[in-house]
Design goal:
Elements: H1 2-12, H2 22-32, H3 44-47, H4 52-77, H5 84-93, H6 97-112, H7 117-125, H8 135-139, H9 144-154, H10 166-186
Helix pairs in contact: 2-10, 4-5, 4-10, 5-6, 6-9
Length: 187
């Protein structure tokens, strides 16, 4: 846990954890997550050992970033898509059940077409660096209908509905579990 604590400290500053609110923790993580010094945090050896609250926060920030920048298909085929199941579990833990159900539906659509995020990522990795392409060129025309079905399902995600905000859920979750985070880091 010692090495993990170093990464948590880079994200939020352990010495301040007792004195800051959940909103500030989320702000610190979102501000520091994409700093060069934190790139290693997604390495499995590090990420898998992070406190669950920090993992969930990272997963949901990455999910939101990908959705805003590249849409659901970009999320699924990017390295963040490799964490689809973890992202779904994070949504469930924070009480964002509608979005959890939508991702579960999307995963079901992919399974019907015998495609998963690992295969999608592998297809992306076969491309040429800086190549301009699209989903169908990367994965094949046989996935056109699947892409349409996923896009329709994704239209119901929080991003397109002002009455839902996963970051409100996440803030409550972090606030309710902050003592657990402090205890976990202190080990």
């Amino acid at each position: 846990m010692k090495e993990t604590s170093i990464y948590v400290k880079k994200l939020i500053g352990i010495e301040n954890l007792n004195n800051i609110k959940a909103e500030e923790i989320l702000e610190q993580v979102s501000t520091n997550l994409y700093e060069k010094s934190n790139y290693q945090i997604r390495d499995n050896d590090i990420f898998d050992n992070l406190p669950i609250i920090i993992k969930d926060t990272i997963l949901l920030i990455d999910f939101d970033t990908e959705l805003n920048m590249n849409g659901i298909l970009g999320f699924l085929e990017n390295s963040t898509g490799l964490y689809l199941d973890d992202t779904m579990e994070a949504l469930e833990r924070i009480g964002a059940t509608e979005d959890y159900e939508i991702l579960r539906e999307i995963k079901g659509i992919m399974l019907r077409y015998n495609l998963d995020t690992k295969k999608m990522r592998s297809n992306v990795n076969k491309g040429i660096e800086h190549e301009i392409t699209n989903f169908l060129r990367t994965h094949g025309q046989e996935y056109h209908q699947m892409a349409e079905e996923i896009s329709i399902a994704a239209d119901d995600l929080y991003l397109y509905h002002n009455e839902r905000n996963i970051f409100k859920n996440l803030t409550v979750y972090v606030d309710l579990n902050k003592d657990n985070l402090i205890n976990e880091i202190s080990k």
